[in-house]
Amino acid sequence: MIIDVHGHVSAPAELYSYKSNLLSSRGAHGRGGAGISDDQLRAALRAPNRSFGGVSHLDHLDEAGIDLQLISPRPFQMMHSESPAFLVEWFTAETNDTIARICSLEPDRFRGVCGLPQSMELEPAAWTQELRRCVQDLGFVGALLNTDPYEGLRQPPGLGDRFWYPVWEALCELDVPAMIHSAGCRPPARESYSLHFIQEETLAVAALLQSSVLTDFPELKIVVSHGGGAIPYQRGRFSAGAIRSGGRFEDQLRKLHFDTCLYTRDAIELLLGAVGVDRCVFGSEKPGTGSVRDPETGRWIDDIHLLVRDIESLDAGEQKAIFEANARALYRL
Amino acid sequence: MIIDVHGHVSAPAELYSYKSNLLSSRGAHGRGGAGISDDQLRAALRAPNRSFGGVSHLDHLDEAGIDLQLISPRPFQMMHSESPAFLVEWFTAETNDTIARICSLEPDRFRGVCGLPQSMELEPAAWTQELRRCVQDLGFVGALLNTDPYEGLRQPPGLGDRFWYPVWEALCELDVPAMIHSAGCRPPARESYSLHFIQEETLAVAALLQSSVLTDFPELKIVVSHGGGAIPYQRGRFSAGAIRSGGRFEDQLRKLHFDTCLYTRDAIELLLGAVGVDRCVFGSEKPGTGSVRDPETGRWIDDIHLLVRDIESLDAGEQKAIFEANARALYRL
Amino acid sequence: MIIDVHGHVSAPAELYSYKSNLLSSRGAHGRGGAGISDDQLRAALRAPNRSFGGVSHLDHLDEAGIDLQLISPRPFQMMHSESPAFLVEWFTAETNDTIARICSLEPDRFRGVCGLPQSMELEPAAWTQELRRCVQDLGFVGALLNTDPYEGLRQPPGLGDRFWYPVWEALCELDVPAMIHSAGCRPPARESYSLHFIQEETLAVAALLQSSVLTDFPELKIVVSHGGGAIPYQRGRFSAGAIRSGGRFEDQLRKLHFDTCLYTRDAIELLLGAVGVDRCVFGSEKPGTGSVRDPETGRWIDDIHLLVRDIESLDAGEQKAIFEANARALYRL
Amino acid sequence: MIIDVHGHVSAPAELYSYKSNLLSSRGAHGRGGAGISDDQLRAALRAPNRSFGGVSHLDHLDEAGIDLQLISPRPFQMMHSESPAFLVEWFTAETNDTIARICSLEPDRFRGVCGLPQSMELEPAAWTQELRRCVQDLGFVGALLNTDPYEGLRQPPGLGDRFWYPVWEALCELDVPAMIHSAGCRPPARESYSLHFIQEETLAVAALLQSSVLTDFPELKIVVSHGGGAIPYQRGRFSAGAIRSGGRFEDQLRKLHFDTCLYTRDAIELLLGAVGVDRCVFGSEKPGTGSVRDPETGRWIDDIHLLVRDIESLDAGEQKAIFEANARALYRL
Amino acid sequence: MIIDVHGHVSAPAELYSYKSNLLSSRGAHGRGGAGISDDQLRAALRAPNRSFGGVSHLDHLDEAGIDLQLISPRPFQMMHSESPAFLVEWFTAETNDTIARICSLEPDRFRGVCGLPQSMELEPAAWTQELRRCVQDLGFVGALLNTDPYEGLRQPPGLGDRFWYPVWEALCELDVPAMIHSAGCRPPARESYSLHFIQEETLAVAALLQSSVLTDFPELKIVVSHGGGAIPYQRGRFSAGAIRSGGRFEDQLRKLHFDTCLYTRDAIELLLGAVGVDRCVFGSEKPGTGSVRDPETGRWIDDIHLLVRDIESLDAGEQKAIFEANARALYRL
Amino acid sequence: MIIDVHGHVSAPAELYSYKSNLLSSRGAHGRGGAGISDDQLRAALRAPNRSFGGVSHLDHLDEAGIDLQLISPRPFQMMHSESPAFLVEWFTAETNDTIARICSLEPDRFRGVCGLPQSMELEPAAWTQELRRCVQDLGFVGALLNTDPYEGLRQPPGLGDRFWYPVWEALCELDVPAMIHSAGCRPPARESYSLHFIQEETLAVAALLQSSVLTDFPELKIVVSHGGGAIPYQRGRFSAGAIRSGGRFEDQLRKLHFDTCLYTRDAIELLLGAVGVDRCVFGSEKPGTGSVRDPETGRWIDDIHLLVRDIESLDAGEQKAIFEANARALYRL
Hints:
The structure is a homohexamer. The two termini of chain A are 13 Å apart. The first copy, chain A, has one domain: Metal-dependent hydrolases (TIM Barrel, Alpha-Beta Barrel). Chain A is built from 14 helices and eight strands. In chain A, strands 1-2-3-4-5-6-7-8 form an eight-stranded parallel β-sheet. The first copy, chain A, is 44% helix and 9% strand. Chains A and F meet through helix 7, helix 9, helix 10 and helix 12 of A and helix 7, helix 9, helix 10 and helix 12 of F. Chains A, B, C, D, E, F: It holds the Pfam family Amidohydro_2. Chains A, B, C, D, E, F: InterPro entries: ACMSD, Amidohydro-rel, Metal_Hydrolase. Chains A, B, C, D, E, F: It comes from Pseudonocardia yunnanensis.
């Protein structure tokens, strides 16, 4: 069985048309709604999609043998930097509601991971209201956490700052993991949103390990997307400092979890070696950026399950841990 | 026959989902396109629409007896203040192309009025490239002009400033009218986009009449939306200054054109009296903001043709001028 | 009998020389004073004035038959945006004191309406100290309220914001009306101070009617200058939204009062029709901007009393209501 | 005979009321004018003035035996930091015209020193148009130069910067001296305008002597007001640097002129010793800040002529140089 | 005997290399330390120094006969405007510790005057922690006070502002004097740090005398460096205002102390005459800016003791007061 | 033989004391110089250094068997973001001169790689003057290129922007490689300078490969420090986009060179596999951040040569290519 902790919702155009309307009206039409029917939701899962290589979301899962997928908002659509804050609140709630409806329509296939209305015009304590609603009322099993709600426009507080403590408290109280996953990235930042994900994950790991967050919240469960940004590859760079302080960076790294959403086998192997099999959960971000076929291998670029299976050094128990058991324990599935 | 100079395109959700994608990716996916089929275009014109009181765009026109409508982008969607500028260029072109396709599908019903990619990161001379493309290649008969491309974020140059001269030059050269119509309005401005239309029209008329624009460009054709904002109602206020300068404000006002897009009869009467029947063209903005039924009269609020017909003092020739002849002359239809 | 609720003080040059000195010294000379004698005050009322068409303030009133005028500071001189705040406080107090002295000199002719020291460096609660002093100590009967104390330099909180609540509270407690009347308007705003009046009145009406202010303060008395900006003319535009929300915009409008300070008969008629005779008070702003003779009619542009009398549909009771009774009730004269 | 190079115009209140009107209207009323009559001009010179210790301007001059005074605008009124620039241009011209009229009315008593419209929104080359007009058309003999046109709001280019070269060029071409004299001083700067004068003079001397201005313009004539700010007193501080560079600071200082507008004898003596009698011209700034009687001595504080006469070490020729001859040569009187 | 209240520490290069490292790492290496040995400290006092005219610190003191010198941080190195604030705290503490060690090595020669970590990111109350540590734990006898912690980047609160009250309170409580002495000066300010000293002293005296600080803290002991900036020379300018307010500026000035750090005899004489011998303490800033020989006299420019001795009007008791007694009383030595 | 392309200069404290003096005086003392003797230079190479684990620079090289090292400025000291620009120019030149002197003292051991005065107040064309001086006059073999001259204060132009073209032109003309290596990192950025290196390298590779730089400058030689930031590890992420565009990301990556400055064997192996042995050059950054002994292995963390030798899959030719031959070809040694 395969559990994929890193999937994003495939929603009808109406959801994003709704978002466009909110941004254009700046809320003058009131909250309203996307007005999506169940048929539209089903079609969005089953219709072949040009962005996904001409295949539907469910076909992708079936082909890869993904039995259960945790789905969250499409991160680049989350618009945390837009103003006024109620636009962010409205669109986040509409997106989470859409996810909840899809989970109801396909209860064996999907579980929800919610987005948070991370407007910097609000207090983090306000973000957690939506977290509570999603977990307690809608049955979600985790949340995305965007470490840069300004989306590249300016610098937010670092993840070690006390600014973020209300979020850690709520996550611990609800006992659900947060997946580190930034959203959009706007000029003047120099990177695309996709590269911004990587940069933010690198910053996030460094900030968490160099601060007292994980000491102050020993029960906190953090999953770092995309194999932890640059850190596992560059981890030696941090060893010297850790040794000088009398610690071991490898031990610190193991306080976090990482998904396998890397698209080459050598990178996944490096990750597993660096942080340990028990800290890794299978994540494919499928369908998405990687949903194109490699002309040389014929595989989908995001056939990460095949890359994992290709790793000969993993025994069956380790494969199962990565594909299923670790996620079950972490997300209490 | 009724020609309505003030209509906006009713496009499928995919156009605005495309816009949402551009804003979220900030262009990282490339220009791409909305991928709208002809069937989707037709459906968007013919499907009952909750925002329009449960009636379709074409049904609205049929019911009102509007034979020909000039359609332009939905102004509040134009996103002129977004960055980088190529997002504005891409979405403006996609919208104008969509309008052109609708005009091809319904050649007897619609003519195009284009939006311009009015990013302040571009020079006005760059905006006019799209104007030329729409008029010369796509057969459009006019353009919207947003007097506030910053959409409320900061103050743009006033309309009398030489900043705008490249636009006036291109309009004169192509011999098409510009309709003054602002777009969105963002905080910290205090008004909704809809009220911003009115405020900008007021500023536009004052700026044009107090500058040398209309002297420098005697052939320039300007249509002020929504009956000229506050100016006809407040025109007496400007009389004193004009008299002190040896002129008459009423004469100056008649250098501009105005549409009838006011929703009460007394206002339309005041407009006609203030600027003259020959300076007015019928505009309904139908379907749109006013597409709701008045529970007292049973009329649609935007049944502006009925309000005009209700004005007893207008003779048949004047009615025809307002409904058809003035628009034919102005837009060379 | 005619009561004119909209007059501004005609003060000697020394008041403005004093202001100039404050601005130049930024208060380094201390508060000092304008040093105006009673003779200078009388002369300023009685001397022919080039700005007023060569006629004195009192002659204007006599000619128009205005028996009692409420006089307030010349709004464009109020300099709310200047810094430090004590300059605004000193000049406001000096101006209000000047008005009080004129009312003492001409007790049958004038009543005072005070300006407030609306520096944004102060709290609104601080502004109301001057309001209390004027009403309680000096016998003033109302106040001007500038909705844009930044005078065009940046955006203030909208009138529906809780920022303004201390002002509403004080007005209700003292039971005096506030007249909405902005002050100066500085670059980068694009409009003259005179047009800024109109724009701010438009914003003010929209903000009050779309917020809970008038519900939270049912006793609050607001007079909107210059016939309400653009709103009565554009009121149909707001009908659709009100209907969608289950209300009637016309009913909401009637929670406010409006003065007749419009300079054409059709506009006054439209106003009376839109909001009702009982919501209107006579205001002429005489002498002022409109104090120039129309070469065609020979009338002063600001002979608003003649325009009102020209409206044949008004019966004697309605004329009296507009000219006297409504103001008596509103201002408790 | 006494020539006083440092006097400021005593103008009627109407000039500053005009300024106040310009600032309040931001020019919306057009340039207009102060509308001052010759009688008002004469009265302003002859009327006892509370600000001047209850004595008139001319009485002050008579009492002190000042035969000829160079009068310039009241510096603190010059409002160089106001916007838009045309306000500065209008008020500067009106002030200079007023000075010219006074010089015409009292041709034996006064010569004009002009103010410049030093808005930073204009180029310095534009400022010199008014300089040329005053010198060539109105017969002025010099100009004030404000080294801080931002009036404390932000930092201008230092006086050694090439920004100022067009001013030096015009002064040399016209062969008239510039008197260094700043204008107002606004928050956030921490000093009053009066202390700002001193600070700016200190900066000016340092900047001129540490740059190549006086080498590039060997004919340039600069008079530093108020005895050169802090420099003569602190000049030893600059000696070490000059010696390290192989020069002598005292020699450099003598490239400039200084007025005697210091209010204690020891300071004047220090000045004369530091820069030499031949570099000093008599300046009293009378009537002005110092026009109050010292209760101990009974003298006016600004009786600087008495302080100079008290210096026993000066012989008759030196006294004459300070009181008359140096000024005649410098200003070509 | 000569006590010099105005000396600055001569520290090894390692102290400033440490500072450079802090600025480059922004603290990423932790606080660390400069790692200076006692031998390096001694060498820095005894080694001939190119910046000091090729002579060592101690040789300078010996040659001038300075028996005891109060040493403080080199002001221009204090970097109060750097960020984050802990860099300022670390470097200030390291510098004060270095001074304390030198005082221990040469207990008969030096006493410490501390710098404060005047980052504007901290509260003034936080600055005084270091003051207490230095006075109470390290035996320092006074402190430098920088009136412009922004170092020219922007305007700080004026010295009369309540912002500074926690500093006054701590100084009074500890009964030690503060010497007014600014630090660096960065663009956009127009002056060098050395001229900035003078400007800030001028501002400081004016601010203190025009505020209620010296009334609120009658025990406060303030020493103004460099003879008080411009004030003694320009003091007549302030007389008029004081007389108008019923006071005498000379009396106010005598509430402060001044050092003699002026480099010409006439300036020192003026200072003594203006404020009185009893308000002056000997200060040489030796070795430092003035440590260069005058080719004409052969004296060091900073041989201020010779200038004082040259003043014939001072009797032996006055000389002793300036050179020793006043400092003993003020600093409780 | 081992050639190490990534070494930084070990300079005496005087160089950084000089820098500290420049920053404190903002250049008021003139350019001056660090005044370092040859003995001090030699001592800095040979003295045991606490920061380097108690061992000297040369001992480190000897122990590792590094025969030739390319040394450049310590990047975190380069202070590109300081102002005014001439400070950056002066310190850069002083540092490069110091490197040149060390290369002269130890001609068999060191070659110079220069820093550039990358102040954003200068044009990039101005930076290349120093590049030319170093290569043409001083014999340097390459340059560091800082991709973020603002050092975290704000966003610079991306590396694909035409802003950088003058640098590419000069590098090609001189035929020397640029090593991508950022400098300091200041708040508000969230990362230490060390992590900033990694983030900037990630951005640099993405920007170069997604722009036309490498097409426009086919001869350009770029070495990316620290194994290319995150890119080799995350390279699969970029495959999908490249395939969609018809290319292969792996081929694009091979247009660049990378050093081996990673501190774990698995990371170096991944790098070699991802970009090819022929694109890699040995770099140790020794002595530096990694100069601490691992308590488990007893090795220095920066014993990168041992990690390379541990890779069994590399044959002797490949080892030689990495350790020597590739660097010889790239740097023409």
